[in-house]
């Protein structure tokens, strides 16, 4: 039995009336469910067409149908059908007037209320099946419709279908004609029907069916067949009854936006696949070997069949799956998911997103390529696979992600430049290092200018059970513009606006004149600022405001506007591709200013310049003028810099993003704050294998703040014994423990009570139970208040300037008098040189140990010191020199003894006082790693020069790479109090630096040098291959073990 369209209009009008109701409002879901209950008898009939009903309720879901009919054309069709005169035509055109507050449907409603159509009986009424047939006929004549729609023509000419469309308006009431008009335009706004509510109200298994076969017609046939055969009695049976079918698009997983690292971890559990989000076009690839030459079918994200448009990709798919070859692993076919990108053989990399439009047509036309370069022979399409949904008739929708990815690896043949698998990293969300791992992976993605990350739980593709866990089978998108204000680009001018009647209805603001705003940048900013020339603007984007922003703009900004023909104040250039050929209807002579953020930059078709991609308005400025906004040159420079080669993984930019991501967690506290708190950021550190005890610290109460580690030092023939642990002793005095600020007798100090965040809460909030025994982190040291560190009374002692370092020397050079340093220059002002390399087993340094910390302690202290090993000339306070030359052959500066690929040789190191005078570290470990840069003065980093083979060109290269150089602080984590005081001083010194000069230091226990030395030596012994290196996984594991934080 045909279903009357009037019933659909009852629901839509009820929802609209409910929105305007002053009291007694009901939820949309309750109204939808009540409507379906009232028509259950009609919907349960076997001759009912579910596809027609769903197409009428959710017209925006029919992306396969394109009518090529918009407001202006539909206005002409309706005017002709209703035979309107001049005055009534003007009433029908009122929707285009800015500020009218009505759309075309409202105008049709007003006209038919004044002169209603003749009344028809129920039998002659318009049905949804009739409307669906007319719309299908219109879509079948449009070349932009899908192949399935165009292959089933209605048998009538397009002119006849237009007449049929007008005839429908003549047979409908004013109310029904209003909703038919919006149905044709595929826009019921401000009424929005929730698809999940509609599906569940219509049939309990409809949402499940559409997940597997995302097609209204196919889903409708399945429901009708199920209703007739009565074979399905429960949702579990559906999973057995329904499987993916070749030629029918499989629905996509639920995608959620991650708003912070904490938000992502809250939605995740167990093992999670962290994948690189490829900046390309989605492809769902169906392979049916029975079709032979036409065995490939490709669906786009919208559900359209884009097989012909992406014909350039077919060769890559054939080669990756070995189609037509005896070695093809397929028997009948498969369904895969992937991203389409453009690869350049010349540059050996994936090109930017805007390059795709040169290689992919849209229904046979290449759109937006007027200002693009021609296709080059070295450019071709590439497919990056990331999931497998079906293979040889076997559905993998119920298989876990890890299992599907393993099957995908076995199926796909990787062809360089043609096919690849998505890069992924496994993260255990139950691990203490989960937040740190995810944060670092995301920071690497940002610094590499990637689109973002996709986090996928190890769950089935779809979960069909009645009881599902929250966020089960949901993929999480993590992009920087989703978090805080990471995507900020700056202020832009708003030079004009236009009015969209359908969009204006969603704001519910009376007399609204603008809905879309044209943002632009000054092309001649210098001329305007200096010589008051006429401003010339280049429009880059069109943006919209949310409801609250629009209310603010109308109330507090509301700029004066003129028609484009009357504009003489500013010059505006709008490229055809900016707004699909549309132009502003109003110009602002005094442009207001918006603050924008975006995902990245892109070259929109038919523009020829970089513009913000997916721009969003952050705020509206009422106190700034267009002269304060970005210039066009600045915007292009910003975009060019964004597309530059990414920095190395250990760059300062990476560390800066890690710190910013930590601060972006709720309330500025990182999710892993309970296990590690740092000064500028918080990073998880895994528990080391060795732990120190309080008794061990108590036993060393006679040591000083430069106490060396108890780790034994390897002896060599002719070497003097290692200096005693108490390396600073005043003449005629017994050694004391309180020689360094913050040091105290740990044997008398009570243990700090455990923090509540380290315990497992028994209440509703479940927190992972961490191990109690772990290496103290930077946060542990800094969490101690200064009163705790300095509260212990200090015994009387000599001024620190009179304290000498009696460092035994491991070489046989004659000892010399150490220079006395009395300068009170602060760390910010102090410049100093680097360590020099001497014999392979020795380090020769021009840097006195105390000079390393002169900047931290100055201007309060004056230090006297000796050199670490005493190598080069050092001028003392009296102008004398230590003339000592190194013995033995010299090595090349910055070269590791074991591997040329050692990353430590390119790092800058700062040693804590506890290990600065420890020969095993300074003379053995650092030397074997080729470390030649021990830098303390952060401000004067660019003045640091290698001491061997130095040239002006070398110095210039060091200055250029300053921000990309990795900075590391090595400490003795077992000595908590002295290390805490040292880190306090480092933090206080850093806080005084200008914000644009601040950089980040990674803090490690010094034993990381031993671990890396062992692995490099093993790799060198086993490999003997040029360019050999320690595996990335091994390096990361070692760093996790000894990492203490970030300052």
Automatic annotation (TrEMBL):
GO terms for biological process, alphabetical: DNA recombination; double-strand break repair via nonhomologous end joining; nucleotide-excision repair, DNA gap filling
Domain ATP-dependent DNA ligase family profile, first and last residues per copy: 383-523
SUPFAM superfamilies per record: DNA ligase/mRNA capping enzyme, catalytic domain
Compositional bias per record (Polar residues), positions renumbered to this chain: 688-711, 782-793
Biased composition annotated in UniProt, kind: Low complexity: 801-812
Entry's family note: Belongs to the ATP-dependent DNA ligase family.
The protein's name: ATP-dependent DNA ligase family profile domain-containing protein
Organism: Lasiosphaeria miniovina
